[in-house]
Amino acid sequence: MSETLENLLQENRQFPPPDALAASANVTAAAYDEAAADRLGFWETQARRLTWATPWESVLDWSNPPFAKWFVGGKLNVAYNCLDRHIEAGRGSKVAIHWEGEPGDTRTITYGDLHRAVCQAANALTDLGVAAGDRVAIYMPMIPEAAVAMLACARIGATHSVVFGGFSVDALAGRIQDASAKVVITADGGYRRGKPSGLKPIVDEAVAQCPTIERVLVVRRTGQDVAWSDKDLWWHETVEQASPEHVAQPFDAEHPLFILYTSGTTAKPKGILHTTGGYLTQVSYTYHAVFDLKPDTDVYWCTADIGWVTGHSYIVYGPLSNGATQIMYEGTPDTPHRGRFWEIVEKYRATIVYTAPTLIRTMMKWGEDIPAKFDLSSLRLLGSVGEPINPEAWMWYRKHIGRDACPIVDTWWQTETGGIMISPLPGVTATKPGSAMTPLPGISADVVDDQGQSVPNGGGGYLVLREPWPSMLRTIWGDDQRFIETYWSRFEGMYFAGDGAKRDNDGHLWLLGRVDDVMLVSGHNISTTEVESALVSHPSVAEAAVVGATDPTTGQAIVAFTIPRGHVDSEGEAGEALIAELRNHVAKTLGPIAKPRQIMLVAELPKTRSGKIMRRLLRDVAENRSLGDVTTLQDSTVMDLIASGMKTGKDED
Ligand code: ATP
Ligand code: MG
């Protein structure tokens, strides 16, 4: 690979923060100066937003990189910080969670209610023999008990490992075995696409392969029939009968809080370990800063699943440590109709929505008449996470969801970083569609070339983090060597995230997708993101995935898989004409070097369970290989459809 990534896409639109938001923002531009003057002092100030039982002796021990210790000697309890202290401050009757089940059943849970449930669960787990340091697997639908289970583990110092409720027996068993978990917390099932979908049968099969599991705690959600063994206990017969009195003990700042396996887009999932004090400090601060939460008036909704890091940091620990009121939704966006999300926003008068580009592009495909049917006037701030957001998807989000009035925060971070790293500050930053803009105060991100040298403005390369940060991963569970090799070996003294990025002429950062996906076309390193964004900027396109396929003349050639928007006629000759138009559109937007050799019009793209496009499978198709590992794929039939369409795809000049 040559030194840098091409910088092809030009974007000149820019949106300053709304005056009212800027005037009342939680965090102002001064934070950048404070952090620049004294980075560690800045993080100490943010740590003081939490309640510590014992203060730390030193803020950072970086004497044995890459193994960091933050807030050395400090002690605190995460659940106390998320619950008890709000109740002690008189906010026990404030709503913590407005929960909406997929069938339309609802629950309203105050901080007092949540505290009671967490204390009961903490007592029940202790009675089952779970002690500080033990691992507990959580395999749940999006019901409040999922958050209760996590907080109960945190409260007693047990390490939770949440496994997304859509994963298979093998995925669950592998994660339980890797962490040697002692207990699994699950439910009989959850509602998905209008039907009860079973979780307990999957747990039963997994547990049969996992001798470390002593107990299985089962929440009754759907009431479906389940097999029962002598390891199994009902939640309502144990947790709900337990004492609601529980005094939280403080734990060391470096006590393990959770293990979470990365989504597996690129390789075998890695068990990312996060600890207590630094994690909560950064997650709590970034939630306050990036979402500008006003606890008395905001109603926040993060649409992620609790099984992903976004659910950990920005449903459970960030919002609750800040005393937020939030919405939690069990189901899918199209059940029972495609307006369900916007109906929920209208119903609860949501003010802040945090979602993923995949969802926004799906909404683009379905058409703007759907959100237009709902009153979205309560919204004041929108967020995006998970993939690069294409500028046109950003504009669509701003216009059709945000009424051209809400700032958008495009937040770059990873399971490994624990909390948000690069993002606009909504009251400060004049945002650009498609750019995550600048590192947050206290974070030092950079874009470097092959040799680890910073690229100048206008250049592209590898995204790195030059200094440790409080919510950084501490290791890969059980595999320090893989931790060092994966993240700290590519560039001396820097964390390498695996993502490509560019710095524009104003110094703002643009994420360009994973470096593994970069295409080498006639000696140029071209990012998938820029070509995809160029395709999505055409009014007929909702979504696009681009890969580099081996080509005899150019080394690699660009092959694009494109989903047309709902209203577009893409059959037969109309489809051929659209393909020709799109190829020219990309060449015009980015230059002839980026013109796709081939464009396929498809109905769906292969995505991970967290909704990210899995390009490596498309590369297999484009190069006529048999498919690689598909176990983390959302819907494996998609690949058959794409592969059969490929044979009739167009291939010209
Ligand atoms: P795996 O590491 O197993 O392949 P994953 O990287 O998809 O899985 P996550 O940690 O959930 O798992 O995702 C982090 C990645 O998501 C980032 O490295 C980046 O590629 C992408 N990402 C997240 N947020 C953004 C964003 N705002 N802009 C661009 N890319 C983003
Ligand atoms: Mg990753």
From TrEMBL:
Protein family per UniProt: Belongs to the ATP-dependent AMP-binding enzyme family.
Q: Which InterPro entries match?
A: Ac_CoA_lig, ACAS_N, AMP-bd_C, AMP-bd_C_sf, AMP-dep_synth/lig_dom, ANL_N_sf
* Protein's recorded name: Acetyl-coenzyme A synthetase
Q: Which residues carry this modification: N6-acetyllysine?
A: 612
In this chain, Mg(2+) is annotated as bound at 536, 538, 541
| Amino-acid positions noted as binding ATP in the UniProt annotation, renumbered to this chain | 386-388, 410-415, 499, 514
**Organism of origin:** Phytohabitans flavus
The cofactor required is:
Mg(2+)
- Residues bound to CoA: 192-195, 310, 522
Under the heading Pfam families, the entry gives: ACAS_N (PF16177), AMP-binding (PF00501), AMP-binding_C (PF13193)
Upper taxonomic classification of the species? Bacteria, Bacillati, Actinomycetota, Actinomycetes, Micromonosporales
The UniProt entry's GO biological process terms, in alphabetical order, are: acetyl-CoA biosynthetic process from acetate
Which reactions are catalysed by this chain? acetate + ATP + CoA = acetyl-CoA + AMP + diphosphate
Q: Which NCBIfam families does the entry mention?
A: Ac_CoA_lig_AcsA, PRK00174.1
Q: Tell me which EC number(s) this protein carries.
A: 6.2.1.1
